[in-house]
UniProtKB/TrEMBL annotation:
Species of origin: Usitatibacter palustris
Gene Ontology annotations for the cellular component aspect, listed alphabetically: cytosol
Cofactor(s) of this protein: pyridoxal 5'-phosphate
Protein name: D-alanine aminotransferase
CDD domains: D-AAT_like
Family: Belongs to the class-IV pyridoxal-phosphate-dependent aminotransferase family.
A GO biological-process term: amino acid biosynthetic process
InterPro entries reported in the protein's UniProt record: Aminotrans_IV, Aminotransferase-like, BCAT-like_C, BCAT-like_N, Class-IV_PLP-Dep_Aminotrnsfr
Length: 277
């Protein structure tokens, strides 16, 4: 498959990265994943605006404007029809030696690739998925979409080891998010979402669910959600660009609510499907 590397469109397996690249040495970079339906990026601009905020947070000069990123995305999609995930990766570049201090004048490394969008299966939509829980042991700048994903990787693996798909995390007794998605809780018909602070990545999908709830007159509250509220929830959902919105029907081996995707989930799922067209 064709990928993008530092200004050129080239076969993915021909791309070579220096071992001194700060992305390789320090995990010093940021990324985005943009879902594409039938060749059309969903919320592409919002993803690239978030990439800009991630760059600003790590003091990396974004090599492209939102318009340029969109143009690169469309060019890449010319050879990748249908439903895709566009992966976008920017590192601080390749210095001449390993040194933590941020060098001046480095040219960022830019990498983009596509792979088929792995949307939830019919079975997952109808029956929901299993999750486990864990203490959120990541750093406190989770609002940056950093390529340093070791915390997320270890958290995610613990659920997979237990036969589940995602790990829902708590920090000091409160819900943050899941290892590669945001998490929502429904109690008494109200959707609860964790605060939009530095402890979570504010998902583009999270923000879409907020908008869909508002337009669809579902009650959604953004506020700290306790671990007890999660464990006693009527419904739990995950959201991300690839998962869309997905019901969690088992948590740590115990059924969530009735153990089936709930009515509020079904309404939100329908709103989402209608929205994406
Ligand atoms: N992950 N929280 C975390 C930790 C994430 O990694 C993601 C997305 C989200 C949801 O963000 P969005 O709705 O903008 O996709 C929340 C992507 C899909 C990934 O790393 O593959």
């Amino acid at each position: 498959p064709i990928a993008h590397f530092n200004g050129a469109f080239v076969p993915l397996d021909e791309i070579r990265i220096s071992p001194l690249d700060r992305g390789f040495i320090f995990g010093d970079g940021v990324y985005e994943v943009v879902p594409v339906y039938n060749g059309e990026p969903l919320h592409g601009r919002e993803h690239f605006e978030r990439l800009q905020r991630s760059c600003d947070e790590i003091r990396l000069k974004n090599p492209h404007t939102v318009d340029e990123w969109m143009a690169l995305t469309r060019k890449l999609l010319e050879s990748h029809p249908g439903n895709q995930s566009v992966y976008v990766h920017v590192t601080r570049g390749v210095p001449s030696k390993r040194d933590h201090v941020i060098p001046t004048g480095l040219k960022p490394t830019v990498f983009m690739m596509c792979y088929p969008l792995a949307s939830p299966s019919k079975e997952q939509i109808e029956n929901g998925v299993a999750c486990t829980t864990a203490e959120d042991f990541r750093w406190t700048k989770c609002h940056i979409k950093s390529i340093s994903l070791l915390g997320n990787v270890l958290a995610r693996q613990s659920s997979v080891d237990a036969g589940a798909v995602e790990t829902i995390m708590f920090r000091n007794g409160f819900l943050t998010e899941a290892s590669a998605s945001n998490a929502f809780v429904v109690k008494g018909g109200t959707v609860l979402a964790a605060p939009q602070d530095n402890m979570i990545l504010l998902g583009i999908t999270y923000q879409l669910l907020e908008k869909l709830a508002k337009d669809g007159t579902l009650k959604l509250e953004v506020r700290p959600v306790s671990e007890a509220e999660v464990r006693g929830a009527d419904e739990i959902w995950l959201s991300s660009s690839t998962k869309e919105v997905l019901a969690v029907t088992s948590l740590d081996g115990k059924p969530v609510g009735t153990g089936k995707p709930g009515p509020v989930f079904k309404r939100m799922h329908a709103l989402y499907q209608e929205y994406k067209g």
